[in-house]
Design goal:
Arc Repressor Mutant, subunit A; globular; D-Maltodextrin-Binding Protein, domain 2; five-stranded mixed β-sheet; single chain; 292 residues; alpha/beta; 3 domains
């Protein structure tokens, strides 16, 4: 009896999501197909992969050991699949994740030049908060992510720091006072709860004994900027996202040093093979970041 690589991919996805139904939806399979594939692995090894603990499904000890080896197997299998790539002419698909602000203001010149150099590489882009992006990277849904966050060390993720970014309070051009607090008619414009720098903004207001009740929350940096410019409130954003508005005097800013340093950075899984397409993107990003 031989094992099929798709069975191991299914096992990895179920282990990541902890649920057969979610894994079936994610993979586009019928749940019965997933059950058959898992049974095939269990029959081969004569050992169970999952067990019920209360209402939760967890990996058995053997399942945990197998998952470690499956991660390596799938990484090496990808290398075998892509051995035909020519070093001088990368091709294939790159799945990239990034926060909206980096995608709009930092990465577009990189992607533009990359596509000019390597037109055969298909790029799939997805934005999101850094916590979500790290989770998707760790599960193999992304080849690479760009993050805006403090310098961290992760067991399964390697990072390359690109630039220490400046963060600033932003308000409408006619905002009064140096504390950058909204008046009664204005809102505090928050990014989503999982956003790296939202808590820094909250800490700033608490330090001034200001506890906002008039709040708007959105994942869109562009929406926040539009609201600020039109006098609807204040926010806290990366300086690179508001440089044009600042130059045109469409908003006021105040740099605020929270003591937490945020870096734009590249992240990829430690077991990820850096194929020619991926290596070219990393090298181009590092080169562009020198001019940021």
């Amino acid at each position: 009896m031989t094992m099929e690589i798709k069975n191991f991919r299914t096992f990895k996805k179920i282990a990541e999501l902890g649920n057969f139904t979610k894994a079936a939806q994610d993979l586009g399979y019928a749940q019965s197909t997933l059950t058959f594939q898992i049974q095939a692995i269990e029959s081969y090894y004569q050992k169970p992969l999952f067990e019920r603990v209360g209402k939760r499904m967890e990996l058995t000890q053997f399942g945990q050991q197998l998952l470690e080896q499956v991660d390596l197997l799938l990484s090496n299998y990808q290398k075998l699949e892509q051995l035909g790539l020519q070093e001088t002419n990368p091709e294939g698909v790159l799945r990239i994740g990034a926060p909206e602000s980096l995608m709009i203001y930092r990465l577009y010149p990189i992607i533009k030049q990359y596509k000019q150099l390597y037109p055969k590489v298909e790029i799939i882009f997805m934005d999101g908060q850094c916590k979500f992006l790290r989770q998707r990277l760790n599960s193999g849904d992304f080849d690479i992510t760009f993050l805006l966050q403090p310098e961290y060390s992760y067991g399964n993720i390697k990072t390359i720091l690109l630039k220490k970014e400046t963060m600033c309070l932003v308000g409408p051009s006619d905002l009064v006072g140096e504390d950058f607090l909204p008046d009664a008619s204005q809102m505090v414009l928050f990014t989503e709860k999982e956003c790296t720098y939202r808590e820094v903004f909250s800490d700033y207001m608490r330090s001034l004994n200001f506890f906002p009740t008039n709040i708007l929350e959105t994942e869109s940096v562009e929406a926040i900027k539009k609201y600020v410019i039109n006098g609807l409130g204040i926010s806290y954003l990366p300086l690179y996202a508001v440089e044009e508005e600042l130059a045109n005097e469409r908003m006021r800013i105040k740099q605020y040093d929270s003591g937490i340093q945020l870096y734009s950075q590249i992240a990829y899984h430690k077991n990820k093979w850096l194929n020619p397409a991926l290596t070219a993107l990393i090298e181009l990003s590092i080169e562009h970041s020198k001019g940021w």
